[in-house]
User: Fold this.
Amino acid sequence: MRKVAIVVGHAKNNPGAFSKWLKPEWEYNLNVAEELKKNNSSLYSIFCHEGYDGGYYAMEKRTANKINAEAFDLVLELHYNSASPMAHGTECCYWFASKKGKEYAQNISSEISRYFYTTNRGIKALYNKNDRGYWFTYLMKAPAVIVEPFFGSNEFDSLKFQDPVKYAQTLHQIITSL
Ligand SMILES: [Zn+2]
Assistant:
């Protein structure tokens, strides 16, 4: 990996999921992105979506135009999941036709779950435009992976990821060994 783009999922004015134990999804992942960059400032570029004006597709398209103007080896969009209190575990999503995307998604998901002792829910292939996260994975020129390391709605999962420094350092180790 020479150049990796880190996209903070959602937007400042529309921050995604909430957790009783963590900062809102957008803010949490901005912290993680900043901590990740401290591990190697020349490897990572951080991107934040400007906002949802025009909808999810339009937002991803604006960000993709910026990212695709540079040559990245990998693009990650950082998220955390939310569902019922019982739902838990790590998963990653990729565009169904991307071999590299699939390979990276598999590795990132299994390695995060190995380091943090979470359940590896595995990878999800995104096939059509109604799949959540589809446009991010489709629009990027480089292999693109959506990272959902845990459920913010699950206490046990959330507490494992309460320190964004630890998560960022782990993610850095995983990315540099891909
Ligand atoms: Zn999200």
User: Anything to note?
Assistant: Residues 9-10, 16-17, 25, 79 surround zinc ion (CB under 6 Å).
